[in-house]
Design brief:
The protein is an alpha/beta fold. Helix content is 36%, strand content 16%.
């Protein structure tokens, strides 16, 4: 069999050395991959910065595109399908990472705004792999959770879902987890518009970690002056040339890293390798997964003394030990021009399941909530 040629984004982790026995592989900066680079390639491993369209692929030998991401709006799927190019994404690969990010945001908001979780309603827009886990995290914290997902409501019936108007009017915190689509019947491009924000509760919080263009930046700027108490953005229109006023005013502003836990990255890389195996018959790669995922910079076993503390304080202490999200925000606010560098050289963040948590003097409800988040609990 002729050796394969693969072009891969050089920021896809855990990949170097894995495919070299079976293929010639070129590692290149994602945004700089050119038609010349892919002209004689059989497969392309991407992240979101490589625009996989006719301008890149016309006349190339590429037969497979595998993106190590949940999102795939960087792939011209119609062009690929018309040209016989198979494309795959990695649905769910970093869903637990985004869940951790949103949970860290929620506990930070509760501390800043003195919110009580049991008196707070969380509205989740988009209830796929990511949104479902975010909803479970909200419930684990003790929040009232509302779900909006029109495509799922069409398929499954409306009983488990809340119409958008009602969700916006009732939710204290609204978080978006939709794909970016422009097609009817449910386009999400600029879903968060002037009308959207007008329907939200006064003093509510808006969070977006889905795709930047789900939010109309001009509408958000207006809403931050007239409607919202705070907002959180992990994704931005026109990345990496982000809106500096929105960054300045955001409670949390991060460089598109909600899904960037080391666990999520390992899952995304494994999904690409497995698709390559299936497509080209490389059975030697069956069940491949990174041999080791580096440990986090924090102790993986730690203790929280819960005596005399509110549930919000306990959740904050436990969650923030694993992920101090405000540090990511501080770095971007101090150095927005290094947006891409911060993404490309992101620190080793491990998800809740990597941690063993000892609890002293905790009630059963809070302990169960922490267990639902994924912690290994010792009492």
């Amino acid at each position: 069999m002729k050796r394969l040629k693969i072009v891969a984004d050089d920021k896809i982790p855990f990949l170097r050395g894995v495919l070299e026995p079976y293929a010639d592989i070129a590692y290149l900066p994602g945004a700089g991959i050119s038609p010349v680079d892919v002209a004689d390639a059989d497969a392309l491993f991407t992240r979101t910065r490589t625009k996989c369209n006719a301008a890149l692929l016309e006349g190339s030998r590429v037969r497979l595109i595998a993106t190590a991401t949940i999102g795939y709006d960087h792939i011209d799927t119609a062009f690929c399908e018309a040209g016989g190019i198979r494309w795959v994404n990695a649905p769910g690969c970093n869903s637990s990472s985004v869940q951790q990010y949103i949970t860290a945001v929620l506990v930070a908001l509760a501390k800043e705004q003195r919110r009580v979780f049991r008196e707070t309603t969380l509205g989740v827009i988009g209830v796929g792999n990511v949104g479902s886990k975010v909803a479970r995290a909200g419930a684990a914290l003790g929040m009232n959770v509302l779900l909006n997902d029109p495509p799922r409501a069409d398929r499954e019936g409306p009983d488990a879902f809340t119409p958008l108007d009602e969700l916006l009017s009732r939710s204290d915190i609204v978080t978006c987890h939709t794909p970016l689509t422009r097609e009817e019947p449910y386009p999400t491009y600029h879903l968060a518009s002037d009308s959207f924000f007008e329907r939200m509760k006064t003093g509510a919080v808006f969070v977006n970690s889905s795709r930047g263009a789900v939010v109309d930046s001009a509408a958000l700027k207006h809403a931050m002056q007239t409607k919202l108490s705070d907002f959180v953005l992990d994704v931005w229109e026109n990345e990496p040339a982000i809106d500096l006023l929105l960054l300045e005013k955001a409670f949390v502003g991060t460089p598109h890293i909600a899904g960037y836990s080391s666990d999520g990255k390992a899952n995304g890389t494994a999904a690409c390798v497995h698709e390559l195996r299936r497509f080209f018959g490389l059975d030697v790669l069956t069940d491949w997964y990174p041999a080791t995922v580096p440990p986090p910079p924090y102790p993986v076993t730690f203790t929280v003394d819960c005596k005399g503390k509110t549930p919000e304080e306990i959740f904050y202490e436990a969650v923030t030990h694993t992920y101090p999200v405000m540090e990511d925000s501080r770095r971007l606010k101090q150095s927005p021009e290094t947006f891409e560098e911060q993404r490309g050289n992101y620190w080793i963040r491990r998800e809740f399941g990597s941690y063993t948590l000892r609890l002293n003097g905790v009630d059963a409800e809070v302990a169960n909530g922490l267990r639902e988040l994924g912690f290994d609990i010792v009492q």
